[in-house]
Design goal:
The protein is built from 12 helices and 20 strands. The protein is of the alpha+beta class.
Amino acid sequence: MKSRLMIMVIAFGLTTVLILTSLVYADETADTILQKRAYVAAYNAYIYGFAPVKAKSVEIALTSVDYPLEDAPAPINIINSTTRLFDYRDTIVPTLNNDTLYVSAWMELKDSPFVLSIPPIKNRYFIVQLLNIYTESIENLTVENVGENGGNYIFILDNQKNQYKNLPEGVTPIYCDTPTLWLIGRVGIRSIADIGAGRKIAEAFTLTPFEEFARGKIRKRLKQKKSVRGCPPSPMGGIMEYYGRLDDVIRNEPLEKDKVFTDQFKIIGIGSNEPFDPKKLSQPVLTGLAAGAKDAGQAVRYAAQNCETVCGGWNLELNGGRYGTDFLARAAINLNSIGLNTPERAMYPKRFVDADGNQLIGSKKYEITIPAKSLVRKEVAGFWSITMYDAQNRFMVKNSINRYSIGDRTTGVQKNIDGSLTIYISNSKPTDTKQMANWLPAPEGEFMLQYRLFEPVKEVYSGKMTLPQLYKVK
């Protein structure tokens, strides 16, 4: 318990770190003092920068193409959608879902405002999530604020509001505080047979530069080309590349409210007038930078697996999408699930351990019973699922029955007499008929689970309802 407390003080109390490492002893050299200052700046910069650096890495991976591909990549300022449910082949980010088709676009609003046209969508779950480069939620567009008949929404940079006061009738403005705007849309899929209908809806979303829209033109979707690789990975690079990307974000897309915190990074060459160049840093600064980055990385990984709010063994992330100055929570959540939505729209509780606190591993067998009482709002097409991922990389795992998730839309499952659903989890295939019908295959080694609740009831997202526990079969 003592070691955990010490880690949390270091990880969460960035001010505490600054105070502790600012102590200077009389016999210390100037180089030693400089190294300490660099350590503090590098530690804080790593944690502050994790979300925007990861987002920038995803942007690079998804937009470094000349034309849209069927598994999501597309050039900048071009909207695209997936054609199938993601599975083990897709490694762009951890914990992709296996429940929806994605609609995506990366926009540079300094080039132009853009108008998103949402098609009519009836009796189907959908959401359009809008994030700035720091993964803060800008807005969520759902059936509750869009309606079933669709609509037009213009995305404008905060500092360009006055240039676009007179908008066409029926166009709703949404303002973003960074030039980069990330659009993540999701269209719910009920079954494999429903993918075709879902694709038609996803492909009807359009994105048009405002100048064209004002002339009465809607930009047609570009034809996709086939991809054979799956959604590509988004590596964050080595530590110098990491800090270089953070420097690019802070110099070109700074948040004024964070300036009092980010100014300290200048000692390690981040956020100055010139681009980050490690060759210009002294050896004491480089030494402190390397040590600070290493320790901060450990703090982020620890926080990602040890959330402060635990419910029935599940780590709840109740401040997803609205982080304020909790930069460690932002980093940890984005390590697990980049671009996490606000909890009232979707919750993604995770777990790495069973009811006894032991790491989940495929060689064991587990059970979890989901109650009959709905934890999601069915009136707005909400639904739930539990998805299997390997514990280290948080990617879906190939298995013999091609089942990567199980939930309230899964066909062929056998419910209990009271309407609840018991899910059986193991690497070995069950021999019992009911267990086989309700089996969620696990890898041989360590794994994690993510419990998705799309449109959860208030008792869930307010943290007042206990989630079902998972038990190892004795």
